[in-house]
Amino acid sequence: MHNKPDNELTLKQLVESYKGLVFNTAISFLQHREEAEDITQEVFIEVYQSLAKFKEQSSISTWIYRITVNKCLDHLRGKKRQKRFGFITNLFHHETGEVLHEISHFDHPGIELEKKEKANILFKAIEKLPENQKTAFILWHIEELPQKEIATIMQNSVKAIESLLLRAKTNLRKELEKIYPERRN
Amino acid sequence: MEKESWINEVMDSTKGMKPLDANPFLFEKISLKIEAKKSDISQVKAFSKSWALAASLVLIINIVSFAYIIKDKPSAQKEMGYTALSKEMGLTSTTNY
User: Fold this and answer.
1) Residue B26: DSSP 8-state
2) Number of CB pairs, chain A paired with chain B, less than 8 A apart
3) Nearest-CA residue of chain A relative to B4?
């Protein structure tokens, strides 16, 4: 693991080493393959542009995780704004009647077939979490990062992360309880 | 009980998830975007340079014109001299005609 970017550490090396980390984190947040690809590119452009500003206080992967999380959250905020605006403007295409601003259904290709349905339910519930709970939960539950690293990425204390995770799990359970009766009928 | 186990299964459904491969041409795409950004910046710089040049030309023309106006305008002292001379030579009186 690189601790400080050397001059020889080119963008190509960075992309090769961290593209999986960035892309998979982005896909968990955005639940959309094309959008995750776009964000991955944006993350590396920012990494390239601010490599000189990188401080040795954290490892490169932590720094890249932080950029990725911020880019994903910004993107989601933008989408939310767009959706809100969509309700004001058009819900349907004026000529074809096609539904615009439709909520996409996410199917993670890395999940085993028998777990796919349940994972889709979980991803939908994650989408409803507040930003900081969502970030903590994705980094801990899906990316399987240690709480200490999550604390560094989110620039928070380990105690605060513990509390965020607890609240995230409680909220997810509540959300799943609401869905359960529908599924039984 | 059944509900609890269903919730637990949902919560654990992402366990063992396989990481996805990023686009194999990712680096090429990023390089193209960086180059495009660089050329955008240089275009903006060139555009602002031409604007700066035009603005400085206008400023120089203004300064030169202003200098001419000042130069052509007789000073107060000169004005007094002319008045005194014209009085002395009787040029101010209309009765000469």
Assistant:
1) H
2) 86
3) A177
State the pTM of this model: 0.72
Per-residue tokens: B93 = 């009186």
ipTM: 0.78
| Digit-coded pLDDT (tens) for A49-96 | 888 888 777 899 999 999 999 999 999 999 888 877 665 555 555 566
Phi and psi torsions of A92, nearest 5°: -130, 150
Do the chains contact at A173 and B7, CB–CB below 8 Å? Answer: yes
Q: For chain B, percent helix, then strand, then coil, each to nearest 5?
A: 75, 0, 25
Those residues with Cβ within 8 angstroms of residue B92's Cβ, 6 or more apart along the chain or in another chain: B83, B86
> Could you tell me if A119 lies within 8 Å of chain B, comparing CB atoms?
yes
Q: Do A11 and B13 touch (CB under 8 A)?
A: no
Chain-chain contact of A111 with B17 (C-beta, under 8 angstroms): yes
A5 backbone dihedrals φ, ψ, rounded to 5°: -70, 120
Structure tokens at A110: 């890395």
Q: What is the mean pLDDT of residues A102-125?
A: 82
pLDDT digits (tens, 9 = 90+) for A6-24: 544 578 999 999 999 999 9
In DSSP terms, B70 is beta-bridged to none
